[in-house]
Amino acid sequence: MRVVAFGYMTWGRRTIEAVLEAGHEVPLIVTHPDGDSAYEKIFNESVAELAADRAIPVLVRNRAHDEEVRTAIAAAEADIMVVSNWRTWLPPEVYSIPRLGTLNVHDALLPAYAGFAPLNWALINDEPEVGVTAHMMDADFDAGDVVLQRSTPVTDDDTVVDLFDRTLAMFGPITVDALDLIASGRRDFAPQDRRAASYFHRRSDEENRIDWTWPPRDVFNLVRAQVDPYPNAYCYRGTERIRVLAASLTDDAIGGTPGRIVIRRGTGVVVAAGADARRGRNPGVLIHRVRLDDGRELDAVDYFPRMGEYLTAHPREADQAR
User: What positions does the domain Formyl transferase C-terminal occupy (predicted)?
Assistant: First the structure.
């Protein structure tokens, strides 16, 4: 088939590469300009460079609803359009131009986790599985009929990087298989259950702040959802910000005040967590390794000179051991 491709960053490039390798013709690529955010520099495999390497015409846009874009899509005489990691809304007068419509590929098990950073949010929310959905685009964001969906389980050993690697590997194959289904004449795709839908916004520095009144497992999930190369989860020791690079949960209950550093364990320190930590029924959060704002990385036991200090969500004068 003739496929117009909208894509950006690593997801977009891998998807377009798979479409080309499957033998489809790509007469036009549309991508975003390079971004300045830390997130966009993490997974920055360039779609524009792919277009140049393959001598495919390319348009670079933040938004793609101007007349030049619509004219170029129409002139491409595509059978279908494929969208992967396009960051802004596409209006009906764009996605409806190809005769078979537009296929969008999203790294979530829709209808849940439409929008941004679905893997981070899903891990934070302790979901048992994540995945990728290929769906037909309609006027609502990530809401069209599902063509194919594939999943992978989440274990306590997984970080967001593990989930990224496994779901990224699904993007090309699910796109190619969905195109094959559409080319075969299939149109009886499953509507999404809008009662189960959820939409998530972009993550920012505020979303990575550790609140020690959260249940311990929530803190653990936040840390592993923001491991390198993502911006890390953080808290404060007095006025100094601490990025938590690795953490786990203790097997035993740790009672006390949320945020208090209780005991050393190996190369780490155990912190009490949970609004009900005083009851002594929660596991503790075992911090293994930290990074400071000057770039130094240390085992937690080497950074904290004594037990009894308090970690907080916001900076404050350093606590004294009690």
Answer: 205-304
Q: What is the pLDDT of residue 37?
A: 66
CB neighbour list of residue 163: distance below 8 Å, 6 or more residues apart: 119, 122, 123, 130, 152, 154
DSSP bridge pairs for 251: none
Closest C-alpha to 277, from 261, 259, 298: 259
**Would you say 17 and 43 are in contact if contact means Cβ atoms under 8 Å apart?**
no
Length of the chain: 322
- In this structure, the number of other CB atoms found within 10 A of the CB of residue 93 comes to 10
Q: How far is CA 68 from CA 50, 62, 81, 85, in A?
A: 21, 13, 16, 21
Q: Is 294 helix (H, G, I), strand (E, B) or coil?
A: coil
- Beta-carbon contacts of 275 under 8 Å, excluding residues fewer than 6 positions away, are 213, 214, 258
pLDDT of residue 15: 98
- DSSP state string for 184-245: TT---PBPP-GGG--EEPPP-GGGGB--TTS-HHHHHHHHHHT-TTSPPEEEEETTEEEEEE
* pLDDT band of 43, cuts 50, 70, 90: confident
Is residue 50 within 8 Å of residue 58, measured between CB atoms? no
Give the closest residue to 12 by CA, choosing from 2, 1, 26, 153: 26
Q: Which of 253, 311, 252, 296 is nearest to 278 (CA)?
A: 253
Q: Where are the beta strands (DSSP E) in 50-159?
A: 58-60, 80-84, 102-106, 114-115, 129-136, 146-153
SS3 38: helix
* pLDDT above 80 (res 320): no
